[in-house]
Amino acid sequence: MRTITIYVSLLLLSFMSQNLNAQEEQYQRKIEVLQNLKDDIVAQEKEALKEEVEKINEQLKNEDITSEQAKVLKEEAAKKHALNIENKVAIVDNKIALLKRNEDDVIAIEKTDHYEDDGIFKIDVNGERVVSINSKDWKRKIKYDRRTYIDPVIAVGLNNTIIDGQSIEDSPYKLGGSRFIELGWAWRTRVFKNSNALRLSYGISFQFNGLKPKNNQYFVVNDGETELQEFEFDLRKSKFRMDNLVFPIHFEFGPSKFSKTDKRIRYSIRNQFRLGIGGYGGFNIGTRQKLKYNREGRNVKDKLKGGYNTSSFVYGLSGYVGFDGVQLYAKYDLNPIFRNAIVEQRNISLGVRFDLD
């Protein structure tokens, strides 16, 4: 019995010795990782400073900034990264000191988050995260530059036509009553890497172009040709509408405000002048006419769809000029409204455009 007791005691002592050795190895490994981390922090900050200086030099080369501005930016960058090194190394030194005073589990370094394994290093003290460094993530944020934005676009205004051999003052359509509305999405991409003076704006829009004929007239089709005729009853309303799906594209010019932080690079066009020149192309997806009149004491509403020989493909020129998200907007269809018409008519619109960024 005594022999068995001695044997069990020896086993327990051996197990405890092995456990202590494992804990000591883990402790030494933590210290080694923290020491290596300080060197990595210095290397990361120096590399980030190098990249920032290169971008400043590129801006100077492109004459986006002056030599005096470049000097100030370099000094600020050097000061910032020096402070980053000082603060981050101090955090690691404090963790080393804390670990040496408490050789237990008060500091947890998870294997799955180990710096040497995947470039991520995290330190928890009593369950609270005090250090989290991801070298790949950190560098990506320094380089991050959003070059493309997407905004909803709304445009509203007056609509009419340009008719061959006739001025717009003699238009058969009401100048104030004929209107258009455009709804869509626009992507805006910076063309040059280090300048936002030129952007490419492109997207998709629904155009609703309305015409209200004068003099109690409405549209009819005779022998394949669409023309205006006088209605047999007094019209309270006569409205003709063409619905188009188009794909606008514009070159957009204008200044912007440049800003840069550790996390992002931005070229802001808020509260800035902008000018867009371009055009659009697409399809006519619907044509309808709405008539309201009184017939034998009854109010009648007629809604007539299709069959007006409108052009299937629509294309034209457009442009806008304004400040911030509000611009004066104009568009002009190069295609005639009606096919096989004796006198060609082309839609023209003038209004206000809103970029809802």
Entry summary:
The protein is α+β, with helices and mostly antiparallel strands. Helices cover 30% and strands 43% of the residues. The chain has helices at 2-61, 67-101, 115-118, 135-143; strands at 107-108, 120-125, 128-134, 148-163, 179-190, 198-211, 217-222, 225-230, 235-246, 249-253, 257-260, 265-268, 273-295, 298-305, 313-323, 326-333, 345-355.
Shape: elongated
Oligomer: single chain
Mean pLDDT: 82
Low-confidence stretches: 3-8, 105-119, 137-142
Structural class by sheet pairing and helices: alpha+beta
Q: Count the DSSP helices.
A: 4
Helix content class: 25-40%
Tell me the span between the first and last alpha carbons: 85 Å
Instruction: Describe the largest sheet.
Output: 10 strands, antiparallel
What does the model show?
By secondary structure, the chain is α+β, with helices and mostly antiparallel strands. Helix content is 30%, strand content 43%. It has helices at 2-61, 67-101, 115-118, 135-143; strands spanning 107-108, 120-125, 128-134, 148-163, 179-190, 198-211, 217-222, 225-230, 235-246, 249-253, 257-260, 265-268, 273-295, 298-305, 313-323, 326-333, 345-355. The strands form four sheets. Strands 4, 5, 6, 9, 10, 13, 14, 15, 16 and 17 form a ten-stranded antiparallel beta sheet that branches. β7 (217-222) and β8 (225-230) form a beta hairpin. α1 packs antiparallel against α2. It is elongated. 20% of the residues are buried. Residues 3-8, 105-119 and 137-142 have low confidence and may be disordered.
